[in-house]
Amino acid sequence: MISIAQAKKLAMLSQGLPPKRTSSALEAFERMGYVQIDTISVVQRAHHHVLWSRSPGYRPEHLDELVSQKKVFEYWSHAASYLPMRDYRFTLRRKQAIKSGEQKHWFTKNPKLMSEVLARIKAESIDG
């Protein structure tokens, strides 16, 4: 049996907290498996907080660099997320199933709505 203090420490360490001094953002991704993308920004978008708390010296541009270097990729796993590239192969089966029609995408295409949105963007854009 472990104590409450030991259980708390175990929970924190299993989440990569506190981070190792040398931990990079990529190491944080690889340790956690994915980081859910958050669109809400009060101070900064939450996925940046997750990486900052696990990677000393993290800056939001580090995520852009990891994406452009093809070290992480964006994917809808159970939510919009960034995943380490080592896991890309696990997404291929589902992508192929959707492409072949064997499996449906999580949303249904709505061409009428898409046309309306594009028309509004064109009408209200600065270049419009």
TrEMBL record:
The lineage of its organism: Bacteria, Pseudomonadati, Pseudomonadota, Gammaproteobacteria, Vibrionales. It comes from the Bacteria. This is Cytoplasmic protein. Pfam families: AlkZ-like. It comes from Vibrio ishigakensis.
